[in-house]
Amino acid sequence: MIDKELLERADKDYYNLLETAGKRGADASEQMKSLNKQMLEKNFTMKGKPFPTFLRPLFVDSKYKNPLRSICNNIMSSIEKVSDLFFKNKEYHHFFEMDPIDHELAMIDPHYPRRVIQARLDAFLYKDGSIKFLEFNCDSPSGMGWYDQLLRLYDALPIMKDFRKSYNAVFEPLLPPFYKMLRSKNKQFGNKDDAVFAIVCKNDSTIRNDVQLIIEHINEKEKHKAIFADPRDFSYDGKTLRVGDTPVGLIYRDAIQDFTDHLDEVKPVLNAFRDGKVCFINPFASRVGGLKCVLSFMTDDRTKHLFSNDEMKTIRETIPWTRFMRQEKTNYEGETIDLVEYVRKNKNLFVLKPNAGYGGFGVTIGHEVDQKHWDSVVETTQKEKWVVQEFVEIPQDNFPIFEPGLKWKMKNVNINFFAFDGQFGGGFTRISDGSIINVHQGGGLIPICYV
Predict the structure, then answer these.
(1) What gap in Å lies between CA 128 and CA 132, rounded to an integer?
(2) What is the pTM of this model?
(3) What are the structural domains, with CATH classification, of the chain?
(4) Residue 89 reports pLDDT greater than 70
């Protein structure tokens, strides 16, 4: 399925080009310094520093895009089906760990099809083309503006110009399909085509610069009016939602906590959403699809009837064995086990994750902690809602670092696929020294380069 020889050759040629870059002009260190300088100038920053990146993309066989598209689309349709359990059967509510206010907000009808409109599917992609999905961000996946800015900066690097003399190297931006999705949902909702889009996060959010880049793309590239707003900036008269004097037809939001932490101050937005007066993306219902227990429902034989044959094939091949951590008997590797006790005694096989966690916080990898620590986390899982997931090997690759001269270091890699309205929309790659690969945990962002 994947042309391994092509990818090995591309890696080797890129390595050699970077090592010898100084013979043709700016050496690798100078190119990295220039990249960081441009990132600062363009506000491509997190907490005032250039967004962490490395002078090497992840190469993916271009012929693999169609299989990736099919896999991601099957995962998205499966997420919707698991979410239906929550919305159509009260017996499942306790699995999904929803606070009363989150539950109330999740029940608001968005007045368009689907619940998970935008998602990021976090996975490991191995050299042989196999994929393992670890979790899904269905609430407020960010980074699209940053990523497209990074692609523009990468495109201008001398190393990429040299590489393209031998390869048809393609970067695929995320914002064009993202905007296409906004237009589609706006139309399904019943708004006019020229409805103003508000891209919303808190003023002091760590993704504020990412949001600004999204706004600039919509205004400048798509020629559609988009504005920034904090969730507390709106007014509502029962008919029209506004920011200042500007009527707003569509809101693209950040995290649900931006609203639930300030309920009194965001009443205009919530009331307009309840009244069906604003197209709201993602609807709060999407959060259900991002809970870790969704993967448990996908891999449990008791719920396999929910899925089509194609979906079930994708699930079997790409989703690691996952279970809700509770006292029960279940199947693992063909045998019946007492779940909690088996997990306690076999820590090296498993990872424990808070059901509603995000940003990698709280994730505990069994083989990286001692038995005492593991036992303590297992006890926590019996008081709170957690899942256990089979540990899967973390893929690694070689990346250039500067100390100050050019060196190469193996780092852990995950690939993050975006889906817009249930359809594959591209992705980016994150790398880290640690096993938990997340920007909030010190990870870096690099492009996917199709060759």
Answers:
(1) 12
(2) 0.94
(3) 321-390 (3.30.1490)
(4) yes
